[in-house]
Amino acid sequence: MLQHITSVAQLTLVVQELMEQPTCAACKKAAVQRCSRCKSEWYCGRECQVSVWKMHKGACDILAGKVEKSGVAQADISLDPT
């Protein structure tokens, strides 16, 4: 993951993400995984992810396109210890 960080600003963002406990976009409980496409939404599990997919899909399409076009590797952070 760190091999793709090319600036102090990027490193700062990664550290901030690691230090914050994200909450589920659907139920607001502690989240352990995030959207694999856009990396912007966090979820506590598959059930919550599926429950808000119709609302998230439009933003996900836009954000995922921006991530792919930027050429910058995004850290795929998972807080699930398994």
Polypeptide structure, described:
With 82 residues, the protein is mainly alpha-helical. The protein has one domain (21-82). 44% of the residues lie in helices and 5% in strands. The protein contains three helices and two strands, in the order H-E-E-H-H. The chain has helices at 8-19, 46-51, 53-70, and strands at 33-34, 42-43. Strands 1-2 form a two-stranded antiparallel ribbon. Strand 1 and strand 2 form a beta hairpin. The longest helix has 18 residues, at 53-70.
How would you concisely characterize the structure shown here?
The protein has 82 residues and is mainly alpha-helical.
- Biggest sheet descriptor: 2 strands, antiparallel
Number of helices: 3
Give me the count of strands.
Answer: 2
* SS class: mainly alpha
Indicate the proportion of strand residues.
Answer: under 5%
Radius of gyration: 13 Å
Strand order of the largest sheet: 1-2
Mean of pLDDT: 78
- Please tell me the total number of domains: 1
Helix content: 40-55%
H-E order = HEEHH
- Taking pLDDT < 50 over at least 5 consecutive residues as the criterion, the unreliable ranges are 72-79
User: Outline, from the CA principal axes?
Assistant: flat
Distance between the termini: 18 Å
Strand-helix topology:
Elements: H1 8-19, E1 33-34, E2 42-43, H2 46-51, H3 53-70
Antiparallel strand pairs: 1-2
InterPro entries: ZMYND10, Znf_MYND
Subcellular location: Apical cell membrane; Cytoplasm, Cytoskeleton, Microtubule organizing center, Centrosome; Dynein axonemal particle
Domain MYND-type: 24-60
